[in-house]
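A common beginner's mistake is to predict each chain separately and then try to dock the pieces by hand. The better habit, illustrated here, is to supply every component at once so that their relative placement is modeled jointly.
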Amino acid sequence: MRVGFVQLEPVFGQKDANIKKATQMIDKIDADLLVLPELCFTGYLFKDKDELENLAEKIPDGPTVEHFLNLAKKRNVGIVFGIAERCENNFYNSACMVTPEGELFLYRKLHLFMEEKDLFKSGDKKLFVIDFKGTKIGLMICFDWIFPEVVRILSLKGAQIICHPSNLILPYCQNAMVTRCLENRVFAITTNRTGKERRNEKELHFIGSSQVIDPSGNVITKASSDHEEARVVKIDPDLAKDKKFTPQNDLWEDRRIDFYSEILTK
Amino acid sequence: MRVGFVQLEPVFGQKDANIKKATQMIDKIDADLLVLPELCFTGYLFKDKDELENLAEKIPDGPTVEHFLNLAKKRNVGIVFGIAERCENNFYNSACMVTPEGELFLYRKLHLFMEEKDLFKSGDKKLFVIDFKGTKIGLMICFDWIFPEVVRILSLKGAQIICHPSNLILPYCQNAMVTRCLENRVFAITTNRTGKERRNEKELHFIGSSQVIDPSGNVITKASSDHEEARVVKIDPDLAKDKKFTPQNDLWEDRRIDFYSEILTK
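With all components supplied together, the output reads:
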């Protein structure tokens, strides 16, 4: 399976131009599965809810989803992208996966970061996995990485590849994902954006460094910190079905779930 | 609070000599809390259960615990050490904490590594925290590191410092503990041993590199990979009570426990 990331540098608010550029990059790639960053067509630093309302879209009825469903079919590729979702009077920081077969899957970020809490509603649906060409795919978004429960649950549900659209500004996640992949023996594609956004006297610098990691914690490929680029690697997703960390240690069989209940009782 | 590790290189089976050397090192240190490696008086590579039976001890009635209870009192220091425990007809890979007040706490490793499964019974008691001089201490042993549930649960129970006696041979744990400390905002003292053991035509090389990490994921101090040494650092354990990763992100308040139940249902 050929999987990869499309590391982008969207211009805030220029949705059509951002989509066009992403499309041009995808048009040049042969892959089975591509992951784009979080909120990668709108930009990240919304001034307020009015601005967000102008840029967010209904799902599945918005034009961005329609465009990428068509592109997935045309290019015969599964595409995961972050999107600002409007649903009734609420906004969600969401990720979609579209497939060549016309399927659409929607995840709403469970763990919002900083000022996202002022704009978005926290995800209100369970974590789930997608059966894509015989491989199970899990979706999470950016700051979800710091909660070990997220990759754990996706992996326990059978996910072999974690698709992780991100807008990272802090230096911790890329390294943490090595441990996430090791402890769950899964692949992860973390796609970050690059560039800066300055709005409301606040400036954010996104650190790129998108990466693909394998179930042994090896970083198979890693992008630059400062420019747009796409990379595709060939992987065997079935490696993620083998939970043996050593010949005697199957990480699933070794779990002592009778001793884990405090996770739910804090 | 002055906390640290005593990185040792025990000689297999030379329990008295190993205890003597550890004692001499501790006698030279001023600290409030010291962590020694896993199985640090017996050595690690037991040929069989008969050999283990000769070296394991009852707890609290064995001479090693008695010795370290006296030493804790004499030196006014809390001491955590790994020990081979015999209890009726079972053996456990255990950790003790002894305090100057004469208290003894016992943890039995929940997740056994490789051939340990042939010798030891898996831990059969819940994870717990110890109130020590106003600071909450959690105990875990070596391979427990790869199960994110362990540090998570200890931290949710209030642990501010994770004491982590180890006999590490693989290169992953030291880096993973950075993420464990970040995701739970706790301190961790991972004490590893050094040297080689060759028995039954099997050779293990222990990689040292004991370390103390703070709740922001900084490695405060780190030992060599190849020789015995003790290090003590001054820390403020109350930093681990603040679970704010950003001003708007308290890692405890942000948890979405309604969405985590799959951890217990695999």
